[in-house]
Amino acid sequence: MALRRQAYEWRNVCPIGNSFTVGHPVLDPNPVVPVVSLDYETGINSQVVSPVIEGAMPIPIFTGMHGNNLKTSAHVLAIQMIIIDSLSCWPPEANVNVFVNSDYWFEAPDYSGINGLSGFTVPFPEPNYPQYFTMESFKEGINPPIHILPGDTWGVYITFPEATFGGELVWGVGTSQPDGSSNAGAFISGPARRYEPSWATGTSASYPLNATVPTKDHEIARVFVKYLLIDGADFLIAKKMLDIGLPVNHRSIIKFRQDLIRWQITSDVVEGSLDEELIRETGVTTRRSALP
Amino acid sequence: MRHLSYHWKLRPDTAMYQIPFRYLAEGLRGGETILPANAANYPTGDLQGWDDELWPQPNIPFSIFTSKYGSAGKLSRTPFSYLVEPLDDWSRKQISTPPLVKPEQFVVLNNFGSTPGILSDPTISNGVGFITFKLIIPTLTDPGIGRINSITFNGVKIEVAYGYPIVIPDYTPPISEEQVRGCFSVNFEESTEPGMPAGNVAYGLSSVLINSLYYPSNPDNYVTSNPDNEPCCPPASADDYGYLGITDIQSGVVGLYIPTMKVVPTPAGYPNKGWTYNEVFISLVNYGVNMPTPSLVIGYFDSYTDFGGTVEKFITADVYATAGVQPPAYSDGSASITYPNNNNIDFLSDYTPNGFINVVVNDQSYYENPDGTTSLGISGDAAPWPVEPGIAVPQYSLRPNIYVLAGQTFDIEYTVNTDMPALATWLRAVGDRTEGGTPADVRYRPATLWDFSQVFFDYWLFEGAEALICQKLIKLGIEITPDSVDWYKQMILNMEGLETDTYEKYLKLTKEWKKRQDIKDAAYQKKRSPRARIRGQRR
Q: Is residue B350 a contact partner of residue B121, using CB atoms and an 8 Å limit?
């Protein structure tokens, strides 16, 4: 598999009692209530939580201990290369940025750090609740794309302007309440949740983390990263293209591969004509390229 | 060359349901064959019927081709079942082996999509828990033998069970006797206790109806033999067998119960002398708000002897199917049956699968995480199906395509992350006394026949000479599409065959292809907005 279209999706959602899981979590749709209370309808998905995210705190989506995480940090093998050509996130107030080794990709005009692309610019998914769509300039992804070369480490951060998902849902209100007050102080204590239904365990436990119980998909923070994973012979081609300054994306790699083959055929043809000359003049029947 | 697609769908065709609190011959039916020690503790009222074998375990990828889950099974099976019946894991497989690309084939996987969504957002619809049939069967008190000749449920004939042992001679050699089905005596008091003691009681109307209507079949093994080899009564375990007719997934077919019946005084409008009136209440579990109104028609002889009956009469059962309303009392005013929760039930449906798709070629998964571990793949939100208004271009599309070469197998693995088995556990616990629940508290049930998840993918299958062209195009580094294969075929047809200058022709072809691509690219740029065009030209 030389040229693979990959994607990674992060969601700030996990089973109650956790702030993150390795891999996408199994979500139990049942209420966290004793069976005898019969509170099914109002308690649907109450075992699913969005852990609180502090404001102005970049959260790594791979290993940030929020939502679904990876076992280890993202890395690229010596025979691989990654081209990140599309980023998107949710909610609109969130921002997404990529770091490669020690540098952020998106920065301010004065080269200072910024939070990155906002969900207003590149929302995920489409369609979505308020019907925001990707800006025309990002419809075909990030251009030029971000190259992650062999040996690089990389990651993606999501940043919220204010604390979010802590007890109350901020998204949809904006960065401040309608009365002008800030939301920042409202998330000190979240609702107490049980780890497991008491009817299953016979006991109840306090939920130590502040979190929100999302009731709709659009209340879950998300990041979607689309990238090309290049290895094998195509990695050599991509590396060569980088060396000579050609743009590298999946179309250009395929084109360059065609060119290489065509050039090889060209040289074969030329060599063939040279061979004919050699055979005619010397009687040697070995191809010129095979001669010592 | 064919552009093919595959559509996989998982929809529950089994139903969870609640059985009435008390019914005739309870303790003998299906999953309740274990008799309770105390009649007061009969397990009736619990929710049952969830078929765990048909719901995928969460977070475990399965093949949409070779797993037992989903649509288009090779063999149909009982759509509703509350029995732990023999399950053949292979019987529902659409394809028995992973798709293998044959030597003369070439496959290009083009794109896929699946049901979007993360959180379960079920639809909750209120409906009636049980539908009730009520009918009165008059029988002449003298000689006191009637016969049920036909039972038609939802237009499907149900074979009537054996009952009172009336036999008629069959003079076709070898001469024998044939037992008549459906005869019953009005003079035997029926038993409502398990397990239907053998003897006279089995000759009554209730045993005929129970043995005819109850699951799973009504075979000839009802006929046991007396010492003189005459047909006799059903054994004590008669209720282990019943018959429901041809299954019809649009209607409830399992779930018929006879909660109560008795001989009543002459109802209004009937002759008051010389007749015995059996009033029968039959419950039918409702499987969803869209279930059509069922019907039950019984054909009977009000008198029957060795010389036959008189004229067959038909009675159509009255149907009561209003949520929040209990069925009527007996015609004599005595109480008939009371359903839990005032016969209300909330049906749950349209749960979101929270699913992911992965592509597997041979034994290698296509999608991996940025740390190199295998990922579940692409979510239904990134690549939704069906595509709804508002989705300009799904965030994910499979570009470049995946080529599956001759000799390789490919598979589409789907992973569901909504824990549906947990839903069944939770709902069961509501009515389960051992979990602290109470059968009378059952208010929710999963509905039947709604789409849980769907997967779609499309691919190109190239065969024969076209597969060879695909191999050649790979060698030339040209993307394989119907367009490129067609074009190359046209070129070949214009060539003369393998000559010494074949390589030069290949060179010309690849140059020609490049020219063609350049023209297409230029045309593509022209269609785009000025800004995008400028950006594209900079590439």
A: yes
